[in-house]
Amino acid sequence: MDYIQEPQKTDKITPHETTGNSPKKLVLVGNLDEDLQKNQPARKENSISKKRLVNKLNHLHFKNKSVQVQFKKSPDNLTINIGALPQPCFGRYVVCLWENPEKWKSISRSYHFNQFELISDEQVISVPATLRAVSDKGICLVLPDRALQHTCRKTTRYSCMPLTVKLIQSGVIFSGTLKDFSTSSFRVMLNDRNETPVNWINTSYPINAVLMSGETPVYSGECRILRHTEKARTQDIILAPSKKPIQRFSPRVHRSKRLILKPSPDIRFYHPVTGTMVNLKVLDVSGSGLAVEDDEENSVLLPGLVLPALTVNFSNSFSFVCRAQVLYRRTFLNKDEKPLAKCGIAFLDVNPNDHIKLLSMLHNAENQNVYLCNTVDTEKLWEFFFETGFIYPKKYAFLHGCSEQIKKTYNTLYSTQSSISRHFTWQKKGEILAHLAMLRFYEKSWLIHHLAAKTSKHIGAGIEILNQISDFTLNSHRLASSNMDYLLCYFRPEMRFPNHFFGGIARDVQNPKACSIDSFAYILFRANRGEATLPTPWTLCKPEYSDLTALNNFYSQVSGGLMLNVLDMLPDDEMIERKSLASQYQEHGLTRERRVYALKRNNCLKAVIMVNISDIALNLSDLTNCISLFIVEKEGLEPDILHKALSVTAKHYLRPKFPVLVYPADYVLDHGISYNRIYQLWALSMEYSDECLKYYSSLF
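Now predict its structure.
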């Protein structure tokens, strides 16, 4: 270690307190402890010329920083350092003014000038100058031809911000202040008013340290106690942080693809502990994080360090700011046998639009035909929808009366960046050969739709699009701003590919809490608006917490899947009043509203009705602009009552017909109700994405 024992106070000399400009202004240094001397790394030395020394002195003057002028006492060789500010230097002499003239006056005549030092975080330059003159204002020195530059640390120790430190050991918390920092060890001064006795610290056991910038943690990790020093009124503890990789997220087999880009990007950030600007080169990058090269001796990163505002810069053509955390640090030797460190950094949160730009760049770098959220020629998109049969005759019969409104909606979705929609296209020479789109339609759920491909032109285009959405969700779902806890998709079971892909995942995983499928009966409903009233004792009202609890209990018995999770229908006092998602749609000139009703007889819940209101054909099957009907208790619930209840809610729709999805589907079968088709709702929890991707990898 590289700590020196604090000096004992004398009658003549009072140690100067630390300030931001100078680490130590007046320090009396005694002999080092034997065990500290034993552990000191070898001192690395080299000399520098007078010309370089003069430039460094002028740089210090420019920054208003001080040097340490050292005086030595004979015959016991005790030394005193006094801070002094160098004045502009022109090569032969240097004049330094005392930072605190009173400290100079307190020195006895038994001390004589020895040398002066330029101390920085990286190095110490010792200058064996000759005394020319000294006074109460300052000192004039004759510069030598060469000075000695050296460091005695394996890693650089940095002055640091005044951070609060919480030390936790065996359930007991100690408070302190960070005094200096390196990636190999740091020093904490414990508060003398700790409610917990400091002697409760067991120096032979690890201790957890949390460094706090205000109320925000910037580092948390397990440390080994190297030394615990008790002084008159304070106690210091020297800690060596563990460099073991941290597990920020649950481990998984399928990982984000890391790409080596040329030219490689770089990162910059203000270090949360030292406050200095740091620039590092990126080795590889993915949508979920990156790896950088850090110098082993002048190291600044260690596992657990949180970077609140990390800027990633791609040759000044694109940059973004994100919140990130260092996960691991691995040492290696470069071709010149110089020790370097590779540090892995995970993105904790990124602005959605910035993240899309990053992913778009990475996807296109991996496959030049794949585009993520690019500006799409909507005329070619409509041609693609009709040519692939995605818009088939019956679907067009339902949509054709609103063609202009639909075109306007899709121009909005495909010409602007937004936080509510994503689209993927496989294009060759401008022709769209495969397409997939997503909508954030519920608070934490994204709806996958518009999956289609021209198989005759490029057989693998559809599969490659699925690869891209797999990578996209893998890279995005852990970012808080993505709001991607779940994925959902509606498909008809007779459709071979969706049933093979989405249905196959659910059948392979065999865990309804990871991936589930529920069947709905789809009815194109025509309301009888003239009879939009319910007879007594039936009521249609805002559901209470107990009503949603009853729905949840019913669904748990019937299915036990994820449907209520993805549709944001779990019991929650504030669920009905959520407006943040609606506001985001409104910002883009789109509509997304929801109304939830409880259908009751004599205050007994029979069904829950969810009314989704959005722009026509936001989803081309209009499943985002329809009613979802959940039958909780079918006894005593006749179809004519349901028809009247649905007619009451029809006030939210302008068109005479609109879709109604009925769950469970066997209600319409039992009562002989005519329906158009069966839709299956596929839901996936992103916590189980590994299991999904495992099956997906086996398909192709």
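Confidence is low (pLDDT under 50) at residues 1-43.
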